[in-house]
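Attaching the record inline, Q. Sequence:
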Amino acid sequence: MRLYHTAATLALLTQALLTAAEPNLAPAAMAEPVSTRPVVEINADNQHYDHASGASRFSGNVTVKYNNVRVFGTEANVKMMPNGEAVATFPNHPVAKRFAPAPKDGKTASPNSPLLAMGPVSKLIPGNVAPQGWLTDVIHADTMQFHLNSQQVKALGNTVSELTTIAAAPMTIRADVQEFDNRNKLATATGSVQLHYKDFEAYAPKMLLNVSPSGQPQTVKFLQGVRLKDGTRGEITSGQITYVIASGNMMAEGGVKSRVNPQSTGSAGKPPITIESDYQQFDKTSNTVIASGHVRIVYEDYRVSAPKATFKIINNTVETIDLIGRSSVSDGDRTITADKIILRTNPKSFDAKGNVKTQFKSQPGLG
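Structure, as predicted:
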């Protein structure tokens, strides 16, 4: 037998939803008939309701419906928070699903179309699948909290998200905690964050993923120390990295260090090229990198210092580096300083132009 949420608790939930959505309603407006207010419907095999606290515990084929949101699970605890927010907590390793129509004409789905569903890993509720032709986001976690008023999902413990609705390729996010704000189009991951997308993977303590109000994917920002491995651009470590999903461009700032292994003919076994700077910008279309601020480059026995450097990374290979501004190259006991230096890796060489100065260290015992 199906049990429905009691009228008293349902009234509390709808009242909380109205208060959160429209806090400045006049008393007359609050007196509108219940039928015109947002309705939360909770179905389950069993329910226990505590009138004193307003809390309810549901078990067995739990289904929560609110507008275009659907939540499924084997157990749910609904509690009214002091701020009026109604929070449904799903224990026992639930799975959340978000459905959205597939993009048309190069555009992403409307932000008003998504459907969110939850179910246990071992037994997804029948019908808990996307309509034909739609895309699906799947979130695994030990525990999930669904905020009915603000349409936020918080996943806690061993979280794994497999996202297909926001970008051209699947994106997988692992973290200790993940929060999805459907209303503000923001996802936050904290604690041992790992992201895999296309040909790169990133590791950081914190990550922010933004989607525009129209549903267009925008940026993924990694914070508090990042290590990123890119199949075509090598390995990058930095204090902060911002990745633009649509273009594939990246901006790294704060102690940036790039390592690229040269793969040109005859370069097998050679050490990588290391570029350190305050800031680095990667342009995906032209495969160009701009490094600025205390640039330091190490390549075999070359030690380079420059205010700015530009270079291309193609197939994980750097062949030419342009040093801009008064720069220097040290090669053993010799140091060359010039207004502009072009460094090449294949064959290994450099050209210095403008006010060139060469210094040699004297050898002990020589006249």
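The radius of gyration is 28 Å. The longest strand covers residues 55-66.

More tomorrow.
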